[in-house]
Specification:
By secondary structure, the protein is of the alpha/beta class. The protein contains 13 helices and 13 strands.
Length: 309
């Protein structure tokens, strides 16, 4: 026969065990299974210490009001300039993590994408890691998924939905205006050379989602685009010429694109004659890409240009 004291001791043990069990279940319930470009990863809900190697994700997190702890050393757009400060741990570059710094940071979550995507495997050995690389063949779809995913992880679903709604409305308005604006060609200049990008390329959003009718079909969709000359631009004769000056992003000089384009051949195009050469924000287009703020700014810039006509 168990004494009262023994029964009470047993009851305390059982209660303690049940409490621990419920805590474990509660902690487990805080974990989220996240589908991303490299598969599925279990991450903590509302992680406290986040390292963001992907500029688009950093942009989106900033727009949603989420602070990160560590970032790569990079050229940030003005609205992300604060991340250059010493209070944010520097954990490598956009291409190459500093694994010692990453380890020392003891992150709860690491976010990679684009340039840092190749390092996913190594970083995933240190902490839960997700790859939010945007698919150029489903640009808007993957941007929306990434924004909603980050909203879910950080309990910012309502903010994410509101910003996506604004973005989609702006994009729909732009498509209506773009359909009447004429044909466009996007070129990237670097080191005195030019590459053209069309539908399905890394900058294909100009045509696919923004609605600018392509001036030429069948351009190479490789990461570096299709090498072109001033003769090609004249032959294509776009109504609009959209230009990304890569040298601005890499710090190799300002105004290099204008020197490449200011020649008698390009001057004969409809775009040049009508003053319809648009120098796109190179940091937003080349470096950030599918972040909420960069994408909204890109839509606004093109909308402002095409509605002037």
């Amino acid at each position: 026969m168990m004494t009262f004291s023994a029964r009470r001791h047993l009851a305390v043990l059982v209660a303690g065990t049940l409490a621990l069990g419920s805590l474990a279940v509660g902690a487990h319930a805080q974990d989220l299974k996240i589908q991303h470009a490299k598969g599925e990863t279990t991450v903590p809900a509302k992680p406290k210490k986040v390292l963001a190697f992907d500029m688009a994700s950093l942009d989106t997190l900033n727009a949603l009001g989420v602070e990160v702890s560590g970032v790569p050393t990079a050229r940030f757009p003005e609205y992300l300039a604060k991340y250059g400060a010493d209070k944010y741990e520097k954990v490598g570059t956009l291409f190459e993590p500093d694994y010692e710094a990453v380890n020392a940071a003891e992150p709860d979550l690491i976010i990679v994408g684009g340039r840092s995507s190749a390092k996913y495997g190594d970083l995933a050995k240190i902490a839960p890691t997700i790859d939010l690389t945007v698919d150029p063949k489903d640009f808007l779809g993957s941007v929306k998924r990434n924004v909603q995913l980050l909203g879910r992880i950080f309990d910012k679903q309502s903010e994410a939905d509101a910003q996506l709604a604004k973005l989609e409305k702006s994009m729909a308005d732009l498509r209506q205006d773009a359909a009447k604006a004429g044909k466009g060609l996007l070129v990237l200049t670097t080191g005195g050379k030019m590459s053209a990008y069309g539908p399905g390329s890394r900058f294909g959003v100009l045509h696919g989602e923004f609605g600018i009718v392509p001036a030429v079909e069948g351009l190479a969709t490789t990461n570096h685009g299709q090498a072109v000359t001033a003769e090609f631009i004249l032959k294509t004769n776009p109504d609009w010429l959209f230009v990304i000056d890569r040298d601005v992003v890499t710090g190799q000089g300002n105004g290099a694109a204008k020197k490449v384009l200011e020649n008698e051949l390009v001057a004969q195009t409809t775009a040049w004659k009508n003053g319809q050469v648009v120098y796109l924000d190179p940091v937003n287009w080349y470096l950030v890409g599918g972040g909420l703020t960069a994408l909204q700014a890109s839509i606004d810039q093109i909308a402002k240009a095409v509605t002037k006509t």
